[in-house]
Amino acid sequence: MKRTFKIALAGNPNCGKTTIFNILTGTHQHVGNYSGVTVERKTGICRMGDIRIEIIDLPGIYGLSSASAEEKVAFAELINDEIDLILNVIDAGNPQRNLYLTTQLAELNIPMVLVFNMIDDARRLGLTFNIPILERYFSAPIVEAVGATGEGIDELKRLLLKVLGSAEPKRPKPIDYGEIAMPVIRELSAEIAKTDFPLLKRLPPRYFAIKLLENDDAVREIPQLKPFLPTVDKWRKGILKRCGVSGETYMTDCRYGMISGACREAIKLKDPSRHQFSEDIDKVVTNRYLGLPIFFILMFLVFFLTFQCSIPLMDLIGLGFSALADLINHLWPAGHLEYVRSLITEGIIGGVGGVLVFLPNILILFLAIAFLEGTGYMSRVAFVMDGFMHKFGLHGKSFIPMLLGFGCTVPAIMATRTIESEKDRLTTILVLPLMSCGARLPIYSLFIPAFFAPRYQAVMMWLIYFIGVVLALCCAGLLKSTLFRSDDEVFVMELPPYRMPTVRSLLIYMMERSLMYLKKAGTFILAASIIMFLFNTLPEKKEYSKDYTVLTEQVRGDASLSEEQKQKQIAQFKAERESERLQYSIAGRIGRAMTVVFQPIGFDWKVCSALIGAIAGKELFVSQLGILNSVGDSETDTATLQEKLREQYTPLQAFCIMLFCLITMPCVATMAVVRRETNSWWLMIAQILGLTLLAYCLTLIVYQIGSHLF
Amino acid sequence: MNWTGEPITVERISISSSLEDYLEAIAEIIETQGHAHTKEIAEKLNVKMPSVTNALQALSSRGLIRYQSHSPVFLTASGAETAAVIRHRHSVLKNFFQSILKLEEKEANDAACKVEHIIGEKVLSRFVLLSEAIANRADCAGLRDYLQQTMPQICPETDDDLISLDKLKDGQCGVVVRVAENLRGIKKFADLGLVSGTLLEMEGSAPFGDLLRIRVMGSSLSLRSKDASHIWVRLAE
Predict the structure, then answer these.
(1) Do residues A115 and A145 make contact, with C-beta atoms less than 8 angstroms apart?
(2) pTM of the prediction?
């Protein structure tokens, strides 16, 4: 007897397939309640005694017609690997629709076992199943199970062993397509059996005969089957005349007819008045008038949790990192490799620490998303917001990532995975940086109070966010009508019943996403921090215009000054020295070179140099600007910095700086995640160039018109 | 009208059914207005001007009409004769559908338009004989009563009784009767259970959007109302 086997796990989306997969293989996976979560190929190993079973988790599909990407993937998997058995998971609460896939899987002539999953929910709905009758209809053994609790799993394992162990396992009996189709199916099968092509080794000729009658494009393309096309088309024309339906509709009707017959005989609904709890929730949540307000309240809650409740934790992490830097400074042998010391404490700990501070944000945000997704609310959001997004060429599913973009662009881009249409997904990713993220907030909170009267401040803030949203939607509309033009795709989405996600699956999801974030901080941010540090410190300036050391000593020795005045004077010298040093550094030089281009939009070399900092992280714009303006510590001396800025810039310039920072190229972390999620360097570069160009042009228009008006 | 039932034998010039329609239209316009212009013909047949011009050239080349651009169209002698035959066929058929099959005038007219091009003179003259016999012979009195009684009761399933899915009101249930074959992604909808015979319930629509939400086989689906308009249902309790 064989010792290793391959099992394919197939079923409709949301039927609890991944739960069954997890419980069989023990690998940790994300279990969502949202169509299309399982997009990657997932395999796991299940050991029973000395038998090793490889289980492949196929994406959730409704049929085998190679119409969608999922169906193509699933079909390729089923025929390319030597699958020993198909484990077909069925949502017992919705047997009719789920068994439709079963009738198609039966055509593949591979042994099959059916799992009626979530049988507890089905019983609660009042459904009772006569398993022996169903087993006879579908000629495959059936197990009743509950994936979430593990009920019925032992029986399933026993059954799997029994089926895999038998020398000649029973194969499912394909269904009868009636007198109209059966003669032609038999005739075609006999003819196809005489031909020879690679797929025929895996699949029975009958499968191809049926697919031909169904007008399946992939099968029609097989060269060896071309000679049969006239016969097939004649039959299809005949059926259209006789029954008024096309071949594919006829076959589908046959399958559903057989299923409804079987269900009528074997499934009894005890208490038809009992209805699902889900419907009650949905009456409110997707209500025409209440739907949107409820959604906005929920989103507000998510953001409140994310940004308010994480403050103590963030402070704690911030303190931890500064303590670490102090510790290193303290322990470092004085005078040895000073440069390396400042690289570690200022460059690495400062840069990476600055990003890791946001980890609590990310954890809470993803926990909230996992919960909303797990309960099934996310598909309701897509449903509620679709009308609005459709006006810009996107559909409802693009809305959630755009909303997350207000928090941080990186998780938002990762959240676009739920969008099935590739073109819609790319469009969403490309415009996402325009949603003003949390890291840009420090820039606005620096400039707005400095340049605008208190009563205009809130309006200005709102205006900046508003400009971002409008630009994002317009760019999406533009991209969808040009580069990513696609025929308005057929949109059918299942709204799964509300279910309570298990704590385990929530934590698994949260951890997966957070680890991704940590990995990013450990690689890209680390590299960017080191580079920025080098830019800010090299080449080292040896000669200064004034001898600050001597000046500091003089102040220290000056008895006429009070202690406070001395400190102030010394800090002033320190900052002046820092400013001079920075002008000399690479960052300063690049900033100066950039003014040639940025003069027309009102930026001086300091702003330009700070923009380089903003590439590593938008919040670095503020700290770099502080350093360049000779303010010792930008965070404690915001007022001083604002005063200095007021002296140098006009409100128009301030607005232009904010506008530019809003639109221009995203931070390094975003670039990295765009590269990975789009799998294209080209798109990443196009995004950087496109956004920068857009930012430049818009700012130029605003600045030039503005400076002529005022 | 010639109701004598004698076969009409006119040497006819064979033309296509669409040209027959043109000739018929020209004759009718001349009869009511005295003259026929290209524009009037286009309006009557609901076609574009260039198509009319093409057809007129074709008719003219067969000697059925006299036609010069920018001047009215005249029927030649053989054209008038052919038109008369076509119009006669039409009225015979229309009369048959109306008086024997008891169809409404518009329905009778439409059916006659479709049939007139495909039947020959032989079949037509037998039709005339049959209608005359049923309408006039004394021994057909019983048959006439019977037809009068039973014909109107035959009411084939037409789309008039059905409503498209997007017109269903919230909470209403319907059984799918027909899914238009030109529905894009018809396979996907079929896979999800939207096939004839399926019971579904309208659950509502999304705020300011064209998304509908229906309950099919125990699960909720949302789809665009544009697509839903291709699915025809009959109201059910």
Answers:
(1) yes
(2) 0.67
